[in-house]
Amino acid sequence: MGPMGPIGLISHFSHSQLSTLNSPMTIFLVGFMGCGKSTVARGLAELSDFRYVDLDQEVCHLAGAESVAEIFATKGEEEFRRLEREAIERLSGEGDVVVATGGGAPCYGDNMDRLMELGVTVYLRMSARALTERLQRVRVVRPKIVGLTPEELAAYVTGLLAERERYYGRARVVVDCDGIPSRVVISRLKYLTKKRN
Ligand code: S3P
Fold first, then answer.
1. According to a count of CB atoms within 10 Å of the terminal CB, is the N or C end of the chain lower?
2. What is the pTM for the complete model shown?
3. How does the average pLDDT of the chain come out, rounded?
4. pLDDT surpasses 70 at 139
């Protein structure tokens, strides 16, 4: 099928190349805060009989903390990033899993290289405008954006997305998510989890 997959989805490998990938497989969803990684990962895992893993939750588990906000407040972001890397390492060798990574996870150290070695990376691409709209509703639980005014949030998302896109954009599969319901994104990604051979 060449580099283009189903509509709205750019895959950097074809279905036949995919079929040569070894099972068991790990799928890493990457993308900015609020792009829907958790919802899509949960839905895709359920549909495919894969295990769903939330990387933020794994980090909380490692830290013995209730929330990411608690880790940021008590141990600082640097320690959060160290634990995030450790949580990625702990996923190596896991079976059929769909992982929702944290928005910053691929953007620190060589994490993106590591994610690409360990599994299939999928970027849920969303514009700064759409992300800002979605984050407006849920910023309280996210330490990076808590307390920002709507204008500050828009500027923050635009700036940080521009910096991070170079990491996210390396993903093997890129799916455009602006205005697309999660269930449609999930069905577009279903082919990744099809049992091969
Ligand atoms: C972060 C994103 C969050 C979480 C932490 C830092 C970031 O994950 O890991 O608050 O740096 O973008 P979500 O993308 O799931 O919100």
1. C
2. 0.90
3. 89
4. no
